[in-house]
Sequence to fold (632 residues):
Amino acid sequence: MSASTFFLLGANHHTAPLELREQLALAGGKAEALRGTLQSLGGLREFAVLNTCNRVEIYGLAADPATVAGLQAAFCALSQLDAAVFAKIRLELHDQPAIQHLLEVAAGLDSQMIGETEILGQVKEAYAAAQTAGTTGAVLNRVFQKTFQAAKHVRTHTGIGEGQISVASVAVDLALKIFGDLRPCRVLVLGAGEIGEKTARAFRSREAGQMTVASRRLEHAEELARALDAQPLPLEGVAGALADFDIAVCSTAAPTAVVTGAMVAAAMHRRPVQPFFFIDIAMPRNIDPGVAELPNVFLYNLDDLAKIAQENLALRQAEMTRARALLAEKAGALWQQVQPRLNGDHPPA
Amino acid sequence: MNFLGLGDRTWMWLACLCYLAGFGLGTAALLRDRRDPRLATYVIIVVGFLLQTIGLYLRGLAVKGCPIGNLFEIFQFTAWSAISLYVVIGATFRLSLLGYFTSCLSAVLSLVSLAAPGWDAAHRINAFGKTGWVELHASLALFSYGVFALLALTSCMYLLQTYSLKHKRLNGLFSFLPSINELDLISLRLLIVGVLLMTWSLAIGSFHWLQDLASVDTPKLLTAGVWLAYLVALLLRLVRKLVSQRLAWTCLALFAAALLSLGPVNASRHPVDPTTPPPGTRT
Fold:
């Protein structure tokens, strides 16, 4: 009976602290060097390397467990990491549990931000790189292709990807609930701080229309406006121009309210039909909280957005059990398909 | 009148069951799976619409005219009008939850009318005389009530979405509501269509009234009052004096008033021969 095994060997944010993950990261030419080393490793029939900021994981098909031990030694040597240290942070799985892990990684269940989608793209890139290098075969081809299908299935049939979990994305989501389409919306960014810029960029990525940046120092406004492909505006001009906007993102360092109730009331008097969405992510707050009482005005501050992000994260976590159960079924079925191929007596993929 | 061995009320019962099924399916999907089964609801509503159309057609053949001769038929026709509009709007605008709310409203209107046998006890054959103009006037007025029914639903959804965003309660049912702007736009369009239809209806009715002043009793002027109120609401909306939540509340209140006016308007018609049996086959 053959001892061929489908395996996973590596470390990730669950098993290793940041400093060790930095050491293991395959930056620069290390990924190529590792691939070259592994290609010459006897007994390693197929492999693919998943290298992200949170994990370095090698998936492959080995002729026997000793091959995996050899791979580990080669990996430690390349990373200049003591084998005993690696043994403490190592994640090693075989056969069906290894498949289940890959499925969970691709579906975003194993990510720091549960349910995030970027990881699926990274898994696809890892597979594509392995294909280009000619290190995949019938087993890995089948496993990865089914993994992509399973990840999509879980995302569609569970709430694992529902709701936004970053402050900027939550703000954009709320704007969509108010305006439906952001393309005709005019966005005012008050303040040139980092969080304001992040939120503005999130709006830009969702094709928000005209964008204007206002700051106490015009040169700051101009600088950020250039980066965002927006128009600069002096802070003194905001009161008069407020009615021309639909969304205002406020993050100035002003110690008192920059947007007062009277300013908003005057703006709404000029544009009573169209809603106005205020996002106050400054500390202390930049917008008079009383504006929330005005009809057709919606005001969210940093705490509100953070709370929604937390609730969405909790919802995603609550969906983990369902998602895991679904993936366990898929992993079981996939293992049944893959098992006969482990010894190489299979038709070409 | 029968079709496939089933009387008109049976077809209407089947339609009502479809609307109830649409509502039940929507509720279950929202509660259990946290999703809006928009396509499934749409298909169920279309099936219900077809069944109700058969029922109303059979009733129309029996009464030799548009089946709006008693309260039962009026409610059925209003529900059918709202659904027929939804069939178009639902496919065009794909507003989340509109099908869910429409199936709920139509189920209620249908169920209430079917569960009150007294509403269908007496019936008028050729109720609108020999000329078709009065019949057109009445059917247009009732169709506009269907439009206002849908407007009441979108207004209700607007208020729910506003409440959700103002109070930061965004999960559950609220998460599926369409955006404020979409609801505002669709409500304005429905208001315009409803007022235009009712204006057309009243223009025809007024022409007939001028020919025969005795044919219109005072309670029928309630319909003119409903039209006037909707017209004022539309004009105020167009000049931006009645917007957002106030407009939504107004549309809800006006639809409630419109429904309440149906009873007196129907009762004010010239007396019916009490010996006239209802035409439909009872179930």
